Amino acid sequence: MYLRGLLAAVTAGTALVALPAHAASAAPTTPHPIVFLGNDLYEGLLIGERDTGNYLTEIDGLNHPRAVTAAPNGAVYVANHGGTTVTVLDAGGALTGTVSGLNKPYALAVAPDGRKVFVADDGDTVLAAVDTATRQVTARLTLPAKARALAVSPDGTRVYAPLTDSDQLAVVDAAALTQTALVTVGDEPSAVAVAPDGRRAYVPNRAGNTVSVVDTATNAVTATVPVGTHPAGAAVTPDGRTVYVANNGSKSVALIDTATAAVRRFITVGDAPSGVSITPDGKLAQITSDQDRLDVVDTATGAVSTYGMAYPVTSLAYSAAVPPAPTASLSVTGVTYQDLAITAEGYTSRPGWESPLTFVFDFGDGTAPVTDTVGTVQHTYARTGNYTVTLTVTDKFGQSATTTKPASVHRLLAREMLMTGGNNKYVVVDALNLQGTGTDGGPAFDVLEIDATTIALRSGGFYVNVLADGTLLANMTQLTPASYFRQTANADGSFSLTSLATGKYVSSNFGGRPLSADRTSIGPWEKFHRVEWFNAGNSLRANANNRYVTADNGGNSPLIANRTQLGTWERFDIVDAGDGYVALYSHADYRFVTADNGGNSPLIANRTDIGPWEKFTMTAAPTGGVTFRALANGKYVTADNGGNSPLIANRTTAGTWETFYNAQ
Questions:
Q1: 124 and 254 in one domain?
Q2: Which residue among 31, 121, 434, 624 is least enclosed by CB atoms within 10 Å?
Q3: Total-model pTM
Q4: CA distance 148 to 315
């Protein structure tokens, strides 16, 4: 993209007025006036608004598009001076074809009926005629010298070509493409403009500082008009009364009165004006420059507006096209926060000719749509549910586009890891499959409230989904009915999940296969335990001696608080055992801690299942930390003898030795 953003108004421009965002209106169908701006430096052609010069869009893939002209039927022709082709566009700038077989095309002129385009080559002295229907060169004429500009008579019978190197104006029969006259004009003719009635041709003579007035009936020069220094371009107003001449060396535009063949006035413009184009309504004269600027003259008042550019414009062509609509793009994030708030973003919507001015968000919950000019808004829903967010973007031309995105808005109940009941392994996500194979934890699943009895699970931004064969995958970015589960509390403190999609229980399948919702009854492999994400891999530091509890000897020895540093044997997961109880899962041997022998023996990590002796009540201690009370005998766990003895549940009250600090 070579030209994007290169045109910027540096004087006051037209104010942009946004349509009311909530107003429903049909898309505009009236063509909007635009201007194509050629250049000889880049591979892109700029399109701007005709009457303001404001940048609209660009066309890439051209080859130094020096000259550009438009036909009455809306076709636009672009001379690729760096190559051998003329590119054909429609009125809005879409590519429709190519004319080949040229030699550095330099200047263009289209016949009034649009049937022919004439091309002056810069690689030789050839003038070519192109049939616009077939886009083929149908005739070639060798001129005495190179033509630096072209113009066609209003009746389409003649082509005029100023020959800078021979100080002549070539007159060519347009139908036969034969030279019919050579008119000697001034020194270095650089351009030509023909009056709307076809009776006069005006030729600026760059080295002579004059304009030659040629009678087209006699092919004779009838007047020579002194103008500014180095006149380089000319155009006649639609009423035929005035010729605008760009004086390249004197920062001015001369206005020649065609009735008197004399300069009526000069208008000061910027450096190095090089060409003139007058809008079809005659209200504006747009002055190109060898500098990076475009001066626009109000023909009624003479007021000049200046537009900065990043390249010198070499030609202009006027057209009109229905503005293309923008493309709406919407993202919805943050849909599972406790306050049911979401963020909707539409600022990535792509422009047609212009970027959207307004962004209207309808959140699908019956609240009033929200209008924004930036494209980012937040919204809080009153209740959970699945909603459709609709975005409508509208640009300055009134062109609109709409898109939608679903928003699954649900409360986050918990963030927890899942432990299987059959082998006490954690559920992990492997290539989207859920498998009960994790030994040191697994991903934290977001548990989302769908309604009072239904939940969904999400991992890594993906919702867990049940396939037709019952397999569980974490592969959905939006909730669907296949993402819904119902929880069942089991008598032993575990829980089971029923898929609403299959109506069957989720099983960890003996730990050897991915989880699937295909069981009709609950057994050990259809049971799960919860581990809150912040309760995984914790350590217990005894208040009795400020040392860490260890499952010594790889879990084969009773628990004792005698470690000053943390390792695997000092790590425990606090597992939800149901009904307000917890269990301690040791990383030393991946077994549960038990208050063995009804609490009469020291605690040891040697159980593969959670039973009454493996359940504890964990309570916050008044002085900080927590206490553990064994269900086996209703007594508190103590780091007896100031922590020098193994942990045992034999205290009826909680004190210093019965307090532990739970930390990561």
A1: yes
A2: 624
A3: 0.66
A4: 12
Q: Tell whether 441 is covered by a domain.
A: yes
Is residue 503 included in any domain, yes or no? yes
Residue showing tokens 């212009």: 354
For 486-510, letters b (16+ CB in 10 Å) and e give eeeeeebbbbbbbbbbbebbbbbbe
**Residue 19 pLDDT grade (very low, low, confident, very high; cuts 50, 70, 90):** very low
Q: Tokens 């293309």 map to which residue? A: 324
Query: In the chain, what are the helix, strand and coil shares in percent, each to the nearest 5?
Result: 5, 50, 45
In degrees rounded to 5, what are phi and psi of residue 448? Answer: -110, 135
The Cβ of residue 620 has, within 10 Å, a number of other Cβ atoms equal to 11
What is the identity of the amino acid at 426? Y
Q: Are residues 562 and 451 in the same domain?
A: no
The whole-angstrom separation of Cα 411 and Cα 413 is: 6
What would the DSSP string read from start to end of 57-74?
EEE-S-S-EEEEEE-TTS
Per-residue pLDDT tens over the stretch 142-180: 999 999 999 999 999 999 999 999 999 999 999 999 999
Both 611 and 636 in one domain: the answer is yes
Number of domains in the chain: 4
Q: Tens digit of pLDDT for each residue in 462-518? A: 999 999 999 999 999 888 899 999 999 999 999 999 999 999 999 999 888 899 999
Tell me, yes or no, whether 577 and 523 share the same domain. no
Please check the confidence at residue 16 and state whether its pLDDT lies above 70. Answer: no
Q: Which domain holds residue 475?
A: 411-532
Query: How far apart are alpha carbons 592 and 22 in whole angstroms?
Result: 62
End-to-end CA distance of the chain: 53
Same domain for 219 and 93, yes or no, is yes
Give the three-state DSSP class for 222: strand
